[in-house]
Structures are given as structure tokens and as C-alpha cells.
Predict the 3D structure of the following.
Amino acid sequence: MLTPKHQRDLESSGLSLEQMNIAGHFSADRDTAKKLVGCDVSGLILNYCDLSGKPYLKKDGRKFYRIKPDCGDRKTDDRPKYLSPKGEGCRPYFSRLYPDWAKATKSTKIDLWETEGEKKGDCGCANGLAVIGFGGVDGWVDRCDRNGTEELKESRVLPELREINWQHRRVNQCFDSDIIEKIPVQIALAKRAYFLSKDGARPYLVLLPNEIDGSKNGLDDFVFRHGIDALKLLAKDSFRTPYEAETKEGSDEIKFSLSLNEPDTHIKAIMAYTVLKERWAYRPAIGWYEWQGTHWKSFTKEEFEATLTVFMDAQNWKKRSSGVITSVVRELQSRLMVRDNLWSPFGKIAFSNGTFDTTTGEFKDSHCAYDRITQLRPYAFNLTAQCPNWLNFIYEAMERDSDRVNLIQAIFRYAVLPRRRDKKAEIEKSFDFFGQKGTGKGTTLDVLTKLVGSDNVGSASVETFKNAVGLGQLLDKDLAVDYDASGFLSNIGAYNKVVSNEPVEVKKLYQDTCTVRLGVLVVRAYNAFISVPDGSEGLDRRLTVIPFNHQPESVDTNLSQKLESELSGIFAWCYSISHEEMKRRIMTAGEISAIAEMSIERFEANNPEFRFLVEDFSEGRDSIKANEFYQSYREWSISNQHHPKSNVKFASIIKTLGCKRSNKIGGCFYYTIPRMSTFDVPSHLGIVKRQLEDSKRDSSNLDSVSNRDSCRQFEPQNQKDIEQVQIKSEVEYVESISSKPSTTVPNRLSVWNATISNPSPTVSTVPSKATLKIGDRVVWMDTKITPALKCVVWIIGEINGDSANIRRVDNLEITQIVELQKLQKAL
């Protein structure tokens, strides 16, 4: 039996419980130890066997054991770490963990290893190496007569070692890494090498490196920390043991020494690699990464070389010329290289308390360096966590518009969950938060930043997209953010490529330029539209502008801390919707009236040529001379304080707006201008289709029939009634979510509690449910829903009490559960 302390001791040598049982070591109290070893101390009894696996016997016929005293591991005293039976000499330790010692000792094709210590022998044998352990650096010799009671006059090689065929056999001598500092150990190793050579063997010195912090490595320590393959690599590149045996003149005494020179650059690189490989990795064209225990973090070449310098200090190496450093670093780059496609595998997210695999729904409370994850969500993964403060905040910021809140939820999910970096973006969208100071856009963006992790956020300023160096700052980022966007976005092409996750050229400092897909989501906040150059229609289709119009009546000075404490709950909130629902919400964001209005407003602000056409040619023109058309544009631009474009650029822009140029007639070009009052701006932008009159309505004359929207979303209503309907919708939304917490990792969650005032009931004039039946085509009449949904025809699939399950006729996969009183038969 092993005490917990002794079990941990053997575990530190890399042994499993099964291997401990095979080795046969056991714990002993003082009485047992005195009986077995003759030592009045408690400790770990070490089981010794010969080549055939049988226990060695002492002179009295009882088993030969050694003991590691419990007091022997104290670093503050000089008491021995191991003890042997008095008068019994030494024995070579052949671990029972090696499968076939008889074969290993006869066949010279099998390399033998020699080391100091039984646990080191166990570790090597457990990993398939034939490692002979000695009870000390001189434990391969003794003066004990196995049969008599007197000591021999001179030391001799242990007789048990004579059973081994040494001729032409390679023997790896592997002692502790502090051998470079201990001359007595060097002498003992040189002496052993000398006798091995006399027996016909070929001794090789396997030098173990110290750790970066200077702590030493024994064979078992090194294998436990860095693996058996690292030890084999050191052995492969080792050299013949450089011993010297000098006979003193006039004497038979031989003086032994070890000639240890500082390794060459290749050996230095090999030794550094074996220690650094768990901690450092090199990414081609990007640079160095260091393992943080939870994820990998990018560092500069200088920072890596600083670590290498500390490692060299720990080995006491003196040669540090630039040529040496360059040569070592170059080889380490090759050995520590991890191909680009292995970084940040799709689907896995690292949290502070473990790793979540979104593809399998499995959470592990551990982190694995070989996952090569480069981002960390700096909070705990907990799908049952809640976020009441966040819900109250975002509903107020979005003016209790559940459609906009749902869109924010989808954007957050898209930002925080893994996206494929090896192909074009599934959702080619970027998002702008537009609003004045104090409307919540900054707080929302701050929460999104913390949810993703500030280390995983790069800059989305206009400077970022100008060149490869700027884009290089977005490597390994999940989010590109501009908290106060301004200026002129000159390189729209690069911006669009980043949004679509198309390959772009990037450059890291001191690295070559390379082409990669960045896989970042771009989000900006501003209170004035950012100017863009000509030809921005690609940007217009990719951009979704979310308005923040509401300023709270009172400000909570502790809100930031409250929201930060709810990050786990906010993640659970955004993860509660499915991937398909997320995609649907983002791709149909233009159906939200506030989003559509803002997108049109932004388009008009950035397209003076469009405004020129609307103002001067609202009814169109069948024919107009090209030069007259351009002159009219120049005069309009000057009068409206715009710098007019060149004739060529103007022609290119108006072409996208439907203006058609004829062939030359009488030496002149002519244009046909469409009726601009009916130009479909939303369709041009890729959002919900609307009549242009809606975007041009006169807000000062709400009662005018011509100012009303075809979908009626702009018809004036009593503001109090609107607010009550909005509040009721939010109550229904909160109450519709199950309150039972999930026991697995679902794709939808429960548990959203929000404090919302109880609204007064509204009066419905819709026909009663008795007039509707399964299969009827209906329209959904609800003040709160988007105008686009009001224009959709639905079909009743199921009726349950006062509610019906309806499906969109044009897409039967989209369903809703609606109160019957809010449905009318479609005409």
C-alpha cells in the first residue's frame, strides 16, 4: 500500500497507479522499515529485482530493499535521501516496468540507459527504454562480498552487471542536469564511461537542460514535463561521452575527468526546443505565440528572444553573439512551427473555467494547448446565469423595440461565437451604432467588447483599413471596433473584404507580408455619418445601421460594473437563440422600420448625387444632353456646398442610380433619367422594399394622405397607446420563455427575468377566433410588429385555445405563435 504522499511522489515521476503496482514499491512505518532495511525511519520502500524479475536477496536470505526516508526530501538538512541495508553493498536496479530485460541485456541492438535513482529507472522503463538505475552516481561499484562478511579491499563493478553483453552496445548515460556544476558527479560519470569502454560498449552523454527558471531536471522530471520523445531527441543528437583517464606517473591510480564544452548552436537549439515546446510556438509569417494556460497569446520576436536569453542563463552558456542567437532562433522557428490552418479551430471557445465546443455542445473544465485557441472569453461559462440589469438596459436603450433588441441579441451571438476563418463569411455584414452621446451606444459597445474579451478586439478606425500594417493589427481578433468613428473611409475595398472575410494582405512588424482571412466582425459607433468615396454601393449592402435615440431619465453610475458582473449571463442570453435564428434576424434587419429609416438616411447623406437627382429630377426626364446634365449637377453641388465630382465619376455614379446614356446623336450624348420619386432605395441597399414616398414623407404634415406609408408603419397613433402595446409585447416576450434551467448544453435557454411594468389591456377590433380555422390564410395585425411582417400572408397550421401556430406562405420554415385576436383573414 502507498500513502497519499508516496503516491504523489511516484506520480511526479510519471507513473500511473497500475505502473506503481507493477513496480512493487510500498509505504512502511518505522517498525516495518527497521525490520526490512534496518533503518528506524518511515518512508517509501523501493522494490529491487534482478534481470529475471526475482527479488535480490541479502546475506541472511531475506529480500533486499532500499528506502526513501520521509525526512529525506527536506531541502533544509543534509540527511540522506535514500538508505540501503548496512553491509549489503549496492545492486543495479532493473525496473519491473521494462517488459523483457533478458532480451535487452543480450541483444546489443537495444540501447541501454544508465541513470541515478530508482524512480528515474521506473520512468524510463515505463516509456519503453531499458534504463538501469543506480543507487547513486557511484552505485555501479561496491566492496561488498556477496558471500562473505568482510569488505573487499578495492571497489569493483557490480557482479550483476557482468551478466550484460556490453560489446559494441550503445549506452546512454543520463544524469541530472546539474552535472555541469558538480565536479564529483562528472568524475563518477567519466569513470563509468571508462569501464564501459573497457567492456566494449560505446558510452554517450545525454545532457538534460535545466528549466527556464533554473530548476534542475532528472530523467523522470524531464519526461514528466516534456515527454519521452523530447528525451529521445536529446539522445539522438548526443555525443560520445568526453571522458579523460590520465594515469599518474609512477602510480597505478587513474585520474578521471569529463571534458564538457559549451554545446554548438544546433545542440543549444535542440535543448531549448525540448523545454520551450509546450510553452512557445511559431506561426509562419505571423510570429511567436506563448501559451498562457488558457489560450495562446501573440508576442514579438524580441519578447521570445528575451525568454531564450533567460533559458541560456539557466544553462550557464556564455556564447551569445548575434550569429549564435540568429542560428538558434532560426532552428527554433522550424522546430516550433505550427501551420496557419491549425490555429483557432472552428467551434471551440476558451472561457476562464474551461473550453466549450459549440459543434458538439460539450464543455470541459480544462484547457488544452494543442487546441491552439488564440482567444479567451475572460469570464466563466455558465448557461444558467442571468442578466437582469443588461436586459433592462438594452430594452430601454432600444426604446422597448423588441425587434431591435432581438437584432442586438443576434449581433452579440455572431460576435462572441466562433466563425469560420477558412472561407468567405456566411453573413457579410458590419454594424454601426448611431446616436448622440448618452443614448447607450457606447455602453452597448463596451459590453460587447468585454463579452468578446478586450484582448480579442482590434481597431476599426479608418486608418486600420489603409494598408497591410493596419490590417495586421486585426490578426487573431474576433472583433474590430471603433468607439467614436470619424474621418474619411478611403479604402472601401479593404473594408468590404474584411467584412466578407475575403483574403487581405497583412503585415506584422519584422515579418513578411502575407495574405490571410481575418474573420473579424466590424462594429463602429458614431454620432455623425462617416464620409466614403465614390462607388460605395458594396459598403451600403454590407452595412446595418442601428439607431440609439433614447436618453435615460436617470443615470446609474454603477451600471458598468453591474453589466460586467453579468457577462456569463449575457453570453447565455445571446447563445439562447439558434444559429439559424441569428442569421435570419441579421439578414432581415432591414424589415425593422427604425433600421430601414437609418439606412436610407445614411445613404442619402453619403450620396449627394442621389439627392441632386431627387431634388432636380423627381419626375425623371426622357432626354437631356450629357453636358447640360453635368452642368446642372455642378451648379447644384456648389449651391449645396458640395465639391462636384469629375464628369467621368459623375457618369459612373448616376449609372448605378438607373440613368442611361444613349449613343452619340449629332455629336452629343443624351441621358434618360428615371422617375426618381419612385426610386426604390431600400431595394438598392438590399433591405426591405418600400416606396420612396415613405423616405421622403413630410414629417411636418402627418395627416397628409400622400405622406402615409403603404404598410402603415408611419401612420400617427396616440403615443401612450403605442407605448402600452410595446410594453405588452415585452411582457409576452419574457413570459414566453421557459423558466426551467437546462441540464445539458442547449441551443436555446430559459431564465430571462426582466422587471417591466404591468400594462393596461388594449382593445381589439379584430374578428373573433370563431371565424378562423386551420388552413385559413391570414395577415398578422399587431401594432408592434415590423411593417414587413404586416405585409406577409400566413397560413394557420394549428389552433391551441386563444393562440394559433402560423407559418409564412412564402417560407413555411418560419413560424410564429400569435393570439387569434391579432389575426385577420387575408383578402
